[in-house]
UniProtKB/TrEMBL annotation:
One Pfam family in the UniProt entry: NYN_YacP
Source organism of the structure: Gloeobacter violaceus (strain ATCC 29082 / PCC 7421)
Organism phylogeny: Bacteria, Bacillati, Cyanobacteriota, Cyanophyceae, Gloeobacterales
InterPro entries assigned to the protein according to its UniProt record, in alphabetical order: YacP-like
Record protein name field: Glr2993 protein
CDD domains: PIN_YacP-like
Domain of life where this protein originates: Bacteria
Amino acid sequence: MQTILLVDGYNVVGAWPRLARLRDRHSLEAARNELVEQLAGYASFRGYRAVLVFDAQLVTSPLVRASETPHLEVCFTDYEQTADSFIEQYSYQLLRENRRRRVMVATSDRAQQVLVLAQGADWLSSEQLLKEVEAARRQLREDLRNRKARPSNKLADRLDPTVRDKLARWRFGE
């Protein structure tokens, strides 16, 4: 079953301590970029298709959508459209098109939570998403550590050393 994760970008930036510090000390753009990187890795690891949505209320440009990776798309909403309304409409559309797909919405906005749950989507708070992202990062590190500790998958690595030496001598005509 395909899982699509819709994320309210600025809600998450405000809820994750590291992103809020980045926003306050450096810039909103720095916090957005960090969130993009975090979600790209998370979505790839979990096999989700993630859509990260940012408000563009005060911008006069139309909807902008860009695929950052095969697993992550970043959207800036239309002029005077909130991320909440975009996510609500898009989750409804996704569920209507295919009831077999799983739609998850990440936001701590209570009104949006109630609405998407009523539509049939799953919901997780921004804080829960942070825990999920951190757990995926730990699991990835553990998987990589285990892969390095495992012997390679080569036949030569599994052979008895004396057999390996004899085969090497044959190969070189000794």
